[in-house]
Design a protein that fits this description.
seven-stranded mixed beta sheet; 57% strand; mainly beta; 118 residues; globular; 0% helix
Length: 118
């Protein structure tokens, strides 16, 4: 499984960005796709994820500002980020998580950097 992310860059506070991540390879149809981020000196944290059935989870810090969505036919997940804040600055990683017979498999994209200017 390969994950190819796109989007990211520099944005002023209050701005918007959209990330995309396309998965390719042998993909189990039931899965979570989503985004994690890691800021300098901090641990990687969940930003948002969406199940193939549509259930979503968001970090409290992004609720109301970010929206995760997916196109199952294209195995692609999106993250629409609005009202960006400097504390959203981080490297964002696309993730595909599969649970097969109670064994979890995680696949990661290459990371894309987002900088919200002070």
């Amino acid at each position: 499984v390969q994950l190819q992310a796109s989007g990211g860059g520099l944005v002023p506070p209050g701005g918007s960005l959209r990330l995309s991540c396309a998965a390719s390879g042998k993909i189990f149809s039931v899965n979570f796709m989503g985004w994690y981020r890691q800021a300098p000196g901090k641990q990687r944290e969940l930003v948002a994820r969406i199940h193939s059935g549509g259930t979503t989870h968001y970090a409290d810090s992004v609720k109301g500002r970010f929206t995760v969505s997916r196109d199952n036919a294209k195995n692609t997940v999106y993250l629409q980020m609005n009202s960006l804040k400097p504390e959203d600055t981080a490297v964002y990683y696309c993730n595909l998580a599969i649970d097969i017979l109670r064994t979890k498999y995680d696949y990661w994209g290459q990371g894309t950097e987002i900088t919200v200017l002070q």
